[in-house]
Amino acid sequence: MIVLKTGRELKIMREACRISAGALKIAGEAVEPGVTTAEIDEIAEKYILKEGGVPNFKNYQGYPATACISINNEVIHGIPSKRRVIKAGDIVSIDLGAKFDGYNGDNAATFACGEISDEAKRLIDTTRESLYKGIAAAVVGGRIGDIGHAVQTYAEERGFSVVREFVGHGVGTELHESPEVPNFGTKGRGIRLMPGMTIAIEPMINSGKQNVKIMPDGWTVLTTDGSLSAHFEHTIAITPDGPQILTKV
Questions:
Q1: What digits encode the pLDDT tens for the residues 33-63?
Q2: Which residue ranges form the domains of the chain, and what is each CATH number?
Q3: Which of 23, 92, 142, 187 is close enough to 44 for a disulfide, judged by CB 3.0 to 4.6 Å?
Q4: CA geometry: angle 234, 110, 203, nearest 5 deg
């Protein structure tokens, strides 16, 4: 069931998303050579708590941390660790969210650690822009397939591939609600977009093939060919005035 949010609910969600966006910003600023992923996770958690939110990833379906921090060929759900040290040249995807007064925010971005390869730069730029192409397609009266088509077309025209196994989703009182929001699809197909819908659009784009695998830890997702992967995400609201990004800093 898709839950349409009232004006009051959207106001609360904006606060949850503000906290989420702030936490992602400072976590990204902490990406430096020699820093561990556990240190970044701690920075994000402290910020969320200080702002009056609750880390909504922590203990979600057993996940042990505030943020998912995935490096290079890790697509999503990398578990922070004191032993995982970020190195110059790495690309680091951070996905996190906050809950405030019963409502959730969710966002992600991929950050460069120092100088990175041209391929990595192009992948990050393409993934970020594919997110905004998807957001631009999220208009009242449109279809879910319009969003995925916009993301897929932009990424694939630039020689990259779109992960199929993991998709975006609705956001509200639950971190993951209906509908699913794939990063691929056909224009004019799928659920119709209506005012009051709040969704997370989150392209996961690989520099190589689209195939992924889950590591024995049950969480970390890797590209099967070892290629780089990038991840960007915003929580947005569908409104009569166009899509509104709720997790904008």
A1: 999 999 999 999 999 999 999 999 999 999 9
A2: 7-245 (3.90.230.10)
A3: 23
A4: 50
